[in-house]
Amino acid sequence: MNIFWGVFFFHRDKQVNLFSVMGSMYGAVLFIGVNNASTVQPVVAIERTIFYRERAAGMYSAIPYAIAQVNFFITYSCVIKDY
Fold this sequence. Notes:
Layout: H1 2-9, H2 15-56, H3 62-79
């Protein structure tokens, strides 16, 4: 990570150059975030339908469902590594 920052800020004497680099980094991070969100959206839509159906049936409330989802995805992220 330090090499990344060093390459971007090496010989950046002017404030305009610094703002250009920061703007480019902001745009890249924003693009990656939007791309990830659009990838996950169909899965969330299906899960939301299932949640509404099961909540209407009285199976559980919103808080235990959210806690279960968070626990599952944290465990899944730790076990499955996509390097």
